[in-house]
Amino acid sequence: MPVVTVAKALFLSLLEETYTDDEFSQVCFGLGVELDETIENEAGETIEYKIEVGANRYDLLCIEGLARAFRYFLGKDKDLPIYKTIQPATPQKMVINESVLSVRPVVVCAVLRGIKFTPESYDSFIALQEKLHHNICRRRTLASIGTHDLDTVEGPFSYEAIPPSEFKFIPLRQTTEVDGNGMVELLEKDEHLKDFLYMVKDKPAFPVILDAKRRILSVPPIINGEHSKISLNTKNVFIEVTGTDKTKAGIVLDMVCTMFSEYCDEKFVVEQVEVVGNDSSFTPDWSVERTVTVELDYLSRGIGLPVEKESVVEYLHKMQLPSKLSEDQKSVVVSIPPIRSDILHACDILEDVAIGYGFERILNQAVTPKTVCRGAQQPVEKLSATLSKELALAGWTEILTFSLCSRADNYDKLLKPFDDQGVLVSNACGEDFQMLRTSLYSGLLKTVHHSQNIPLPINLFEISDICLRSNDVDVGAKNQRCLCALRVDTSSGFEKLHGLLDRVMILNRVLHFLDYEKWKKYYDATVAEGKKIEGLFYDKYYRIVPDQDEVYLPGTCGSLILYNATTKEEQNLGKIGIVHPQVLGNFKIPNPVCAFHINIEPFL
User: Fold this and answer.
1) How far apart are CA 27 and CA 24, in angstroms?
2) Residues 6 or more apart from 132 whose CB is under 8 A from it?
3) Which stretch of 113-127, 284-298, 512-526 has the lowest confidence by average pLDDT?
4) Which pLDDT score is estimated for 573?
5) 368-389 residues labelled b (16+ CB within 10 A) or e (exposed)
6) End-to-end distance of the chain based on CA atoms, in angstroms?
7) Which of 52, 490, 567, 582 is 20 to 30 A off residue 532, Cα-Cα?
8) Which DSSP category does 197 fall into?
9) Which residues contact residue 375 at a Cβ distance below 8 angstroms, ignoring those fewer than 6 apart?
10) Tens-place pLDDT, residues 143-159
11) Cα separation values, 92 from 101, 155, 160, 220, 435, Å
């Protein structure tokens, strides 16, 4: 979760309150945030608060937004801000050149007129941009912010993609003019900015914002120009947000404008900029009111207490949400201001009503339900834990490997053809995380490869989920709990692995078919004599039938077939055999390996 650091004295002065640290922690809890840490000076006095806020509450990422939220929650302010945009007779223009559409196609802009910075608000203005860059902007990949002193540049502005050798400018906080390649070389030494250079480095063209005189304002998403930098004396701020995600860029622009327009001559009024591209538009656009209608009965059921219709508007007001009751008085219609991009569904309104109502009041007034349910392990987890314990007692070592793997590990190295069972990961962060595994083999074999300094034999097992595509579930894929075990020795040691499999089956009250036949004769004879049956009742048995699988050496593989004597059904649980030498070579394992891989869910 994001953590916002604020000076205690300044923050409490904005709230017009005095709190001890414990009292302030309770106030934070009431608002749904958390006092994460207090910073003390040498005298042991708290000088800073570190407040943890929700990851989707971008309006709380600066002291302005936090103070505004606290003041309304505490009832300090009555009238909610009215966020407005104005369109001047001759608006500033941002022209999108076609060359940039394949590089970083989105740009939205705004102007803050007559702004008055103080040292504290200036620092907060810069800090908010960094918080947004690391949060919603996903480290500048989805969006990035550029802020400029409008009085130092001249519109109309243009957004273009230019080869790095064909433009020059002085980067922010630098004194030397460089071209694009020089900028990359210069910033590779910058501890903060070097991590973002991969987005433009070695690209044929860089995205660039220019003014009417072809002066460079910024090279997004990397750095602004020195010429247009803002300062404490800046009166008019030009804001541009570029990116690849139009929705995210719009939210970022809304956050910067709504937070700092309170310092403008006309509070909470933002000047629109005309963005000219394939479709011209004015940004930011707050003209269309977004509303969410929620039934009062839904709110009462969600909180667990009756919510009075006369009070629900008050609770939402404390959360900066203007609202009114519907004509039939059975619902509340909530207007969503531009600062609350986190409101997407009626459940978000429910959360804010609960906060406005008061968590402490809910705890004090909540009625214990008539039906009390006791928590317990899911059956599949209980089965997994029991098997894990028993296999460990048998002398086998449990491992836990990643659910994500590479396509090569899941298919090629196991000699399996690529099929439509695997769930692939789009935009994977690396080749080792390309898909969800469809078997547990690769994780175990890779563990053996990295454990070759351990004395033989090596006995390993894993009980984990695999993921398979399925049309039977709404998400298109389902998990399957499986058990995979293998033994590594100077010889195959197949009989030891077979013994482990027998133990697994007996633990699940499944007999080998030869043992089942003996037990069935005893059962039938005992029943015929009218005697009481001694011991457990068995209605399932298994046998291993010859089969083929790419993972195993031909002639050594068998399928484990589970038979239900009552329903006459049979089910293939998995395979057992000696691992193919080519598979071992692919994983660089020099010793023989035998393994089995079974689905344990039918044992439930």
Assistant:
1) 5
2) 58, 61, 143, 145, 252, 255, 256
3) 512-526
4) 92
5) eeeeeeeeeeeebeebbeebbe
6) 38
7) 567
8) G
9) none
10) 999 999 999 999 899 99
11) 21, 6, 17, 20, 47
